[in-house]
Amino acid sequence: MDFESILKNIGSFGRYQKLLLCILGYALIAYTMQLYVQVFSAGKSDHWCASWGNEDCPDTGIDCSGLKKDLSVPKVYNDDGTVEYKQCFKYNVSGMDMETFIGLGENMTTRLGEIPCDEGWEHDRSVFSDTMIIDFELVCGRSALPNIAQSTYFGGFMAGSALGGLTSDLIGRRLTILIFTSLMCIFALATAVTPVMSLFIGLRFFVGFFSRTASLSQFVLLMEVVHPRRRVLVTNLYFLGFALAYIVLNGLAKLIYRWRILQVVITLFLVSGLPLQYFFVLESPRWLLIKGKTEKALKTINKIAAINKKQDVVMREEDLKNAQMESEPESSDMIDILKQLIRSPVMVMMTANMAFNWCVQSFVFYGLSLSTSSLGIDPYLSFIISGGIEIPAYIACMFVPEWLGRRLSMTIIMVLGGICCCCSTIFPTGLNRALVAFGGKFCISMTFNLVYTWSAELIPTSSRSTGMGMFSMFSRVGSMLAPFMLLFEDVWINLPYMIFGVAAIAAGLLALFIPETKGKPLPTTLEETRALYRKNPEKNETGISGENNKVFTTGEDSGDL
Predict the structure, then answer these.
(1) 375, 373, 493: which is closest to 430 by C-alpha?
(2) Where does 431-485 have alpha helices with state H?
(3) Which of 6, 74, 327, 430 is most buried, with most CB under 10 Å away?
(4) Strand pairing category for 89-91 and 114-116
(5) Pair 84, 75: CB distance under 8 Å
(6) Residues 209/211/212/217 CA torsion (nearest 10 deg)
(7) CA triplet 384, 388, 390: central angle to 5 degrees?
(8) How many other CB atoms sit within 10 Å of the CB of residue 148?
(9) What is the bridge-based pairing of β-strands 75-77 and 83-85?
(10) Which residues contact 23 (CB under 8 A, 6 or more apart)?
C-alpha cells in the first residue's frame, strides 16, 4: 500500500488536516506581521531641525512650535509655487535667544548661514506619532538605517532558505517548527526593548532566519499529510494567511500608536500559537517512515484516522512496509547540480533566465508592498488595499495559467504589471497614483504565485527540491535589494517605481524564451527538460501525465515568513 492510499484510508482532507491548516495558517499570519511591521514602526513623516529647545516664544499669539520652525528653518520655493522646509539644515541661531533673533529682521537671517541640525529634530506626528525613526532619530544621515534593517531581515530569510530544509530533514518538521518559532518569539520581543538601532538590525536578521525556517517546515508538513488532489486547494487556502496578515496588522497599527507596544502585541500572536502547535500538531508520518521510525509513524497515522473519525480503519505495521515515500534518487549537492547544468548551454540559459525571473518577482513584490506609505493616500488604507488585492490575485492564478499557459500568462501579466508601475509615475502622489500602483501589485502577486508552479514543472525530479531551493536563494537577493531601492525616492520620487516597472517588463519578455509546460508530464531527467525546448518534445512511455505529475507548489513565497 503506497502512502497516497494510506491517506485515502485515514482521510485525505479530514478534521485533522483542516485543524492543522487553521493552526499553521494562524502562525503564518503571525510570521507575516513580523515581516511588514516596519511599514508602521518605521513610518516616515516630515521632520525639521529643532531650535531653542523649551524656550518660550515671545507674546506673539502664534503657535510656538510653528513659529520656531518658520523662523529657524530655511525654505525652498518650488516651481509650482509650493514651499517646503529643509529637513536637515537650519539657520545658525546657536547661542542666540529667540527674541534676539526676531529683532534681527528677516533680511539679516540669511546672513547667518546654514548649519546641520545641532539640537535634534522635530517631527510631524499627525499620522505616525511614535516610531523608531523618531525614537532613534533616523533622519538625514541616518535615514537609510530602517531600510538596512528590513534588508537584513531578508538576509535572515536567505539563510533560512539555505538551512531550513536541512534542519527540517534532520530533526523533523514538528520539532523544527516548535524550536524556531520559540526562538523567533524571544528575538522578536527583544527588538521591542532594544535601546540602540545597531542591536535592532542584528536582531531583525535572526527574526527573519527563524521565521523562514519555521514557515518552510510548516509548508512541508502540511503538504505531506494532504492527498495530491487536495494540495492546490490547501496551498491557496494556506497562503491566504499572507493577505489576512495585512488586515490584522493594519487594524493593530491603527489602534496602537507606539511602535514598541505594537511589536510586543504582534509577537504575542506568535506566543499564543505555540500551545496549539505543541498539543495538536503531529509529526509528519512521511518523515517518520523515511527515517525508519515505523512504530511512531504507525501511532501517528492511527491518531490521524481517529481524529478524522475513521474508527473502522486501523493501520498495522505490515501495511506500511510497501509505502512509497516519493523518495526518488535526488541530488542534494548544489555543486553537483550546477556541474550538470553547465554541460548544456540550453540548461544554462533556462536556469539563468528563471533565476532572474525569481529575483525580479521578489524585488518588485516586496518593493511595492513596503512602499505603500509613500503613495500619497492614508498609509493605513493603502496598506490594507495592498494586502487585500492579493486575495483575488491568488484566485485568478488558479485559472488563468490553465487557460493561457504558463509562458504567455507570465509574459502578459508581468509586462502589464510593469506598465502599471511605470504609468503610476505620471500621476502626482494621491489616489490616481495609488490605483495604478495597486494594479501593478495585483499583477505581480499573480506571477509570484505562478513562478513556483512553472519552476517545479521545469526542474527534473532528480534535482527538484534542491533546484527550487536554489531559485529561492535568488528570490532572497531581490527581496534584499527592494528596501534599498526605496532610498532612491530622495534622488527622484518616481525613480523606484520606474525601476520596478522596467525590471518587471524585462523579466516578462525574457519569459518568452522559457519553454511551455502546461499539460506536459513532469521531467524526470535533465534530458527530458531539454526536450521541452523542441517543437514536439518526446513524451514518456505512457504519454499521459498522471496524478504524480501534478504540481502542487503554488502561493506567494511558500513559507516566506
Answers:
(1) 375
(2) 431-458, 464-485
(3) 6
(4) antiparallel
(5) yes
(6) 130
(7) 130
(8) 19
(9) antiparallel
(10) 273, 276, 277, 280, 281
